[in-house]
Amino acid sequence: MSGYAAFDAWWWPYVFIAVAGWLATDIWRWLGVLIGNRLKQDSALLTWVRAVATALLAAVIAKLILYPTGELNNVPMALRLLAVSVGFAAFLLSGKRIWIGIAVALGLLIGGQLLLG
User: Fold this and answer.
1) Is 84 in contact with 105 (CB distance < 8 Å)?
2) Do 40 and 78 contact (CB within 8 A), yes or no?
3) Exposure letters 44-83 (e unless 16+ CB within 10 A, then b)
4) How far apart, in Å, do the first and last CA atoms of the chain sit?
5) Can you state the angle between helices 77-93 and 44-66, rounded to 10 degrees?
6) What are the residue boundaries of the structural domains of the chain, listed by start?
7) pTM over cut 0.90
8) Is pLDDT larger for residue 43 or for residue 5?
9) Who's near 16: CB < 8 A, 6+ residues apart?
10) What is the mean pLDDT of the chain?
């Protein structure tokens, strides 16, 4: 037997995941640091990178709200949409303080589940 299955220790999958995850992400981080230091803040490439990163984050958040898995799937869609909307409004009204938006949205989700449950 060779390859991944050749190791029969209980800890081997964890080491494999840690090393593979580190290699897969750290290379890109270091390349980003090296290339990013040479770019101007208002360059077209950096603007594009920010736009792509923002779009990816928005897509992940939308997926979590509209097509959740796990325990969030038990929360009604209306409550999830209300929590994200009110949380975003609290974020804007508080001078763009992220923790306030998160706290308000989380409070609505927990409070709504306690009232509905």
Assistant:
1) yes
2) no
3) eeeeeeeeeeeeeeeeeeeeeeeeeeeeeeebeeebbeeb
4) 52
5) 140
6) 75-117
7) no
8) 43
9) 4
10) 89
In 3D, which of 30, 18, 112, 39 has the Cα closest to residue 74? Answer: 112
Evaluate if residue 1 carries a pLDDT over 60: no
Determine the Cα–Cα distance for residues 32 and 115; give it in Å rounded to an integer: 46
Task: List the one residue out of 66, 86, 69, 64 whose CA is nearest residue 77.
Answer: 66
Per residue in 52-95, pLDDT tens? 999 999 999 999 999 999 989 999 999 999 999 999 999 999 99
Angstrom CA distances, 74 to 52, 67, 79, 103, stand at 31, 11, 11, 20
